[in-house]
Amino acid sequence: MELANKATRIRLFDFKSIQMRTFHMTWLAFHLCFFGWFGIAPLMAVVREDLNLDKSMVGSTIIASVAITVLVRLIIGPLCDKFGPRRTYTWLLVLGSLPVMAIGFADSFETFLMGRLAIGAIGASFVITQYHTSVMFGPNVVGTANATTAGWGNLGGGTTQIVMPLIFTAIVSLGVSETLGWRLAMVVPGMVLFATGIAYWFVTRDAPDGDYRELREQGLIPPAKAERGGWGTFKTAAADYRVWALFIVYAACFGVELTINNVAAIYFFDEFDLDLKTAGLIAGLFGLMNLFARTLGGFFSDLFARYRGLRGRVQFLFLALLVEGFALILFSQMTVLALAIASMILFSLFVQMSEGATFGLVPFMHKKALGAVAGIVGAGGNAGAVAAGFLFKSESLSYAQGLLFLGCAVVVCSFFALAVRFSPAVQAEEDSALRAAMAERKRDDEVSDAEPSPA
């Protein structure tokens, strides 16, 4: 669907316009979701001892944490098309907070596994984040907007690795045992998620001109029935091979990031004989690159589009993903801590740029099925994480060997990006829309320059 009054620039310190309020609320909500989603990951060394988990069991919990998200992401996209991102996000955050707090009741491998499985639904928040910024920003900046909100959200994967051990340590310092400490620590992100869900309802709305219910009543967008309950958009997206090519591409970038979020701390803990806090701090550097790396991916996607159109977005995605694969192979071979950290940061830069470049393409696939496209591509990330999880579940493979094989798989997957093509008519239409957005931005700049400065 086409929506009016999309923003043509990103004003980071604008907290009044609905576009920028939504921008800030989406990345913040997604950021906080990581505390619930992966809050237990940096505490796994303690959980492993408490629940007597072996490597295979730990691997199963890693797979569980991302497996359910595949299904929920496929569902959440059409729900955004039907009910709007505001309602969908609010309910996901409120309901998702419950298993985060409840995982503290786990007393066996089976109950812990089910807890991580239920918590994984929160990962669908990414789809809503990308959907919401896609309907708020124009074609000249939508790649940067999507990449920045997702990147600053993914930054939660890094801050979680750093903050959760500190929360755990603070609780234990009060005289609480480690066995009870990790359970109480998970209550904190659960409460934060619940509060964020309430805030999302009051701070945002579905589109620049109002909620979907209001816009449908005014006849400005098609009624929900015209979208066949939202599932018609899913069929449209699922019938396009290009969407599945991006599904594979996203499996090779975001799927890899999710995997590293799950294994990085325990990898450095085991391979380099570090303590829990130090391992978590180093693992956190991987996620902290999201502060700017994913934004760079979206920025270069927009930049390539200005000179080479949609074809330029595809070419940049291929290059970023190819370099990511080789950088991961390099990281897997490092045996010196300093070199391992340096190569991990290089790898992190390109994995996150690849993610930004992927969702620099998504808004241009099927505008009337935006939620469904975002859901399928987003689900690819979790499907990739599930597949990668089996590499780290096997007792016959070391973590380093698993990373090596994963890097080789990324190199192969990078070529799927080249399968994404657009017809000459679509390219011409988008080039025209891009020029119009740039012209509107130029007019805004001229108006701003002509306004007298305050005395």
TrEMBL record:
PROSITE patterns: MFS. CDD domains: MFS_NRT2_like (cd17341). The chain crosses the membrane at residues 25-45, 57-76, 88-106, 152-176, 182-203, 243-269, 281-304, 316-349, 369-391, 403-422. InterPro entries: MFS, MFS_dom, MFS_trans_sf, NO3_transporter. The keyword Cell inner membrane does not apply. Keywords: Membrane, Nitrate assimilation, Transmembrane, Transmembrane helix. It is found in: Membrane. Belongs to the major facilitator superfamily. Nitrate/nitrite porter (TC 2.A.1.8) family. This is MFS transporter. It comes from Spectribacter hydrogenoxidans. The lineage of its organism: Bacteria, Pseudomonadati, Pseudomonadota, Gammaproteobacteria, Salinisphaerales.
